[in-house]
């Protein structure tokens, strides 16, 4: 809208100049003067896209008719957009235009000669029409660039402060996990090792060895998580997260602890995205954890179904019992699991079965 107003103002001022109200009158017919003024107005209106047409119209209009309004606007636009050598080139072009206007003024005589060919008047017009608008444009551009740089600096500082706060929070969480969780799991491993050595019962020794092995694996995973919290960008010493290739080992651990777990794979087995495999592994892991906690040694079926565009995971136990959500403090693992599945565009369904038992089912797009 402002460029439309600018174009209208340049047209009106140019027409007043060439008709002699605020400038040098011209002997050309009125339709020609209106057309020239309109060309100047249109060029000023289009200056938001490119100001070079305005510069061309300004050069012709000033040299031919001493029409200075478009040259004033062009000089301001030059200050806003040009840099370095281009500023010098623009000033050289303006000097040439002023020389051409002086020659035309000498030829036409009268007020045209007085305005463009008289050294004092020509210098004053050059300063007012070219110099001051150019300096104003340079000043406005410098102010804008300084404001933009301040905004960028403030944004960078804000990002740095936020990142520092996140780093401090990650470090605090890492300390808490190390001091509380890692300490408790270490005690579990130590007691399991002591039980394995001291017990005379072979079955108890195997169970204690399994508990110790699971605890040591948990400590290793915990160290990986703590490494991520302390240094998110570091990859050193970090093991790859488990995928479906590690699923049998997970099921064997549950079998060792007394749960009869069966696995069935349906569909054509094929490589799928690692994030999908990791999520599928976590679904089975969380479901088996809930079986251990809430269903004792209930027989459990694990189904991995490869569909045309999705991977379906089902874990179903066959014993009556309360679903995890109904127990105090339980169900948060399933909440996090649902968020993990939904981040991949999938859905997670958990429900108690009519004949007893509990179902965890996930569909994940591949």
TrEMBL record:
Pfam families: HATPase_c, HisKA_3
GO molecular function, one term: kinase activity
Top EC class, one word: transferase
Record-annotated Histidine kinase/HSP90-like ATPase domain positions: 277-365
Signal transduction histidine kinase subgroup 3 dimerisation and phosphoacceptor domain sequence ranges: 169-233
Keyword Transmembrane helix in record: yes
Protein name: histidine kinase
Native species: Nonomuraea helvata
Organismal lineage: Bacteria, Bacillati, Actinomycetota, Actinomycetes, Streptosporangiales
């Amino acid at each position: 809208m402002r460029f439309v107003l600018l174009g209208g103002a340049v047209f009106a001022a140019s027409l007043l100049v060439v008709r002699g109200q605020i400038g040098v009158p011209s002997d050309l017919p009125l339709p020609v003067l209106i057309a020239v003024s309109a060309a100047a107005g249109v060029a000023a209106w289009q200056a938001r896209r490119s100001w070079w047409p305005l510069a061309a119209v300004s050069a012709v209009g000033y040299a031919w008719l001493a029409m200075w309004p478009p040259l004033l606007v062009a000089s301001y636009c030059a200050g806003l957009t040009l840099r370095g050598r281009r500023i010098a080139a623009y000033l050289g072009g303006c000097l040439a235009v002023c020389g051409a206007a002086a020659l035309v003024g000498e030829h036409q005589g009268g007020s045209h000669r007085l305005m463009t060919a008289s050294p004092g008047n020509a210098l004053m017009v050059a300063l007012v029409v070219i110099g001051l608008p150019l300096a104003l444009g340079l000043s406005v551009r410098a102010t804008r660039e300084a404001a933009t740089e301040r905004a960028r600096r403030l944004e960078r500082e804000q990002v740095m402060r936020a990142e520092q706060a996140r780093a401090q929070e990650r470090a605090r969480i890492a300390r808490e996990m190390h001091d509380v969780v890692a300490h408790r799991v270490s005690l579990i491993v130590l007691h399991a090792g002591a039980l394995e050595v001291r017990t005379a019962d072979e079955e108890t020794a195997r169970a204690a060895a399994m508990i110790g092995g699971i605890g040591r694996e948990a400590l290793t995973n915990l160290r990986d998580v703590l490494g991520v919290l302390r240094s998110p960008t570091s990859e050193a010493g970090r093991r790859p997260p488990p995928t479906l290739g590690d699923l049998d080992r997970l099921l064997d651990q549950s079998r060792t602890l007394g749960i009869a777990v069966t696995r069935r794979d349906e569909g054509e087995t094929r490589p799928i995205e690692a994030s999908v495999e990791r999520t599928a592994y976590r679904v089975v892991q969380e479901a088996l954890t809930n079986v251990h906690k809430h269903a004792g040694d209930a027989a459990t079926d694990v189904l991995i179904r490869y569909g045309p565009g999705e991977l379906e995971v089902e874990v179903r136990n066959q014993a009556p019992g309360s679903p995890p959500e109904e127990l105090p403090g339980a169900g948060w693992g399933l909440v996090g699991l649902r968020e993990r599945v939904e981040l991949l565009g999938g859905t997670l369904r958990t429900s108690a079965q009519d004949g007893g038992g509990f179902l965890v089912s996930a569909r994940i797009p591949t």
